[in-house]
Amino acid sequence: MNTKAFANTRVGQVFIRIMAAIMESRLRYRFFGPGRILQGADLQPGQTVLEIGCGTGFFTLPAARLLGDQGSLVAMDVLPMSVEAVTRKVQSANLKNVRVVQGDALNTKLAAKSVDAILIFGVIPAPMLPMDQLLSEMQRILKPGGTLSVWPPSWVQRTIVQSRYFALRGKRHGVSNYERS
Ligand SMILES: C[S@@+](CC[C@H](N)C(=O)[O-])C[C@H]1O[C@@H](n2cnc3c(N)ncnc32)[C@H](O)[C@@H]1O
Prior knowledge:
Number of helices: 8
CATH superfamily: Vaccinia Virus protein VP39
Structural class: alpha/beta
Order of helices and strands: HHHHEHEHEEHEHEE
Number of domains: 1
Number of strands: 7
Oligomer: single chain
Strand content: 25-35%
Shape: globular
CATH topology: Rossmann fold
Helix content: 25-40%
Radius of gyration: 15 Å
Bound molecules: S-adenosylmethionine
Distance between the termini: 30 Å
């Protein structure tokens, strides 16, 4: 079962509501503030960035601000409710450099070698996201020299390093940064 199918079940709907409340909790903002974690990805003004699994937009707005007017952020989530929530946030913040997209990380439909950086924050490991398929798609769309940033640190780092797609470049503020192999 994929994420979208799960979200349409009764259990899935309850689970998603609980997750959304946790993701937007004051405690999370206080102890795991998005600004400090984003520093670990070293985003630069003018870059084109893809955020996988934007959820409630916890990282979306601060990431977009780091990119500035010349940069752009594609905030992608497979769930329509996430897309609606983040679109509302982006509009009320009057941010013009964000495109919120309903899409699947396993088949983003973005052009090959089209993004400077990819953020996968708070998304993996996830039972419904097969790593080989995900990493293959991330490698396809990332420009040569681009960075895949993953947070939080977990055993997925080993899976990524052992894959034929990415090599670890370094770690900062708990964010693991990878380059194309
Ligand atoms: C735990 S939430 C984290 C949200 C956000 N990154 C944060 O840290 O607050 C994971 C998000 O990934 C999304 N997701 C799961 N599978 C996905 C897929 N295949 N493609 C795009 N988004 C997906 C879910 O819908 C959910 O919004």
